[in-house]
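agent> fetching stored inputs for the pyridoxal-5'-phosphate docking request
agent> found them:
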Amino acid sequence: MSTGNQFSNSLAAADIATGLHPYTNARLHETKGPLIMERGEGIYVYDISGKQYIESFAGLWSVAIGFSEPRLVEAATKQMQKLPFYHTFNHISHEPNIRLAEKLVEISPEQFTRVSFTNSGSEANDTVIKMVWYVNNARGKPEKKKFLARTKGYHGVTMASGSLTGLLNNHRDFDLPIIPVIHLTTPHLRTSGHDGETEAEFTARLLKEIEDTILAEGPETIAAFIGEPLMAAAGVLVPPAGYWQGVEALCRKYDIFLIADEVVNGFGRLGTMFGSTYFRFKPDIMVTSKQLTSSYMPLAAILFTEEIYDILADNTAKIGTWGHGYTTTGHPVATAVALENLKIIEERDLVGNAARVGKVFMENLQQLSSHCLVGDVRGVGLMAAVEMVPDKSSRKGFSQFGKAGGKAFASALQNNLIVRVLGDQLIFCPPLIITEEQALEVVARARTTLEEVA
Ligand code: PLP
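agent> prediction call returned; pasting tokens
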């Protein structure tokens, strides 16, 4: 029962009385209450008291073009007026669905010729699992069912995508995983490296672990390898040099599909259009969402090769259908908004902006390394993490995990800054429209925040 009496007769009281928030301690929420946002403008959001914050996390790694783009409102309105909904089952289509698929094929790496839509990243990864199994069954390899993923990787929260996710809180008491998945070592030297291990040695060890696992399980049982090119929710973990090339080679050697989960990396976050472009590898399947519509509408897109399509298509001809799809697959308003969003990303060169401003942002964020609380500063493009530690000479975290992070989040809010806190890491992922001056303001507010926490 709610104990939030101090919130009675307010919007907050109604929230406490009726809500269950994602990633929230529900009992704590009853006493703490919500922070209620009211509007957004550019890189800023405003709460119901009118207080302005820099949103240095773009919502949830999401809002590439900022919080108030009239062109997306217009695109949504026009489509709502024309055809607010239609499905895409049984040979039916509509223009925004077709045009967006065409656009995605145009801007993505050359191996991608086919697109399938879902409503969220979790559903997209769920669909990919089914697609991989369907294709492997169709090509006479029904034993290829197991997925290789990474500890701390994030791929969503549905029963199957949540199984791929390698984070304890997404499994504990949910009885996951429910599909066969093997979580390998997190590919990040600071997180998983041995004392004194070089980057090259670390890469070699990771690749050996993958190959040993494939051989121990039997290559004929491994369906796919899935990974975020640059791990996001794990704490912006940059993989060691040569890792992705090595993974790709192993996938080819053992006939394993390579899936890039680009739900965060996709559409310019790293200063290149996609994460696989940045790290120079060639996945068979790519999952995108979030910045696809700047999250103004729920939408995800799966891109895959003609080879996969051909096997899948032949099987639909054999059994009569691709027995999969959602009521709102390729929703006309969501796809119309995505098209306009991608146009804006191109016209304003937001990918280039992420590279240019990202460089200045990182250089200035690096200066926080001298702070007594900061153990590491890392990132690529407009995606960065500042890791707080009790003792700079060690990689060890605080004995009370998340306490410094919690303090930092509260202090950042006081400083009109919204930053994502994961454990004791401050995570930055600002809208791609951010200017150099605004990026420096984010660093200044982060510095003040660290000083208040110390
Ligand atoms: N994959 C990655 C890499 C993500 O970061 C997320 C969400 O943050 C997902 C998948 C799941 O997407 P959604 O929350 O839209 O289900």
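agent> quick read of the result: The first helix runs from residue 11 to 18.
agent> awaiting further instructions
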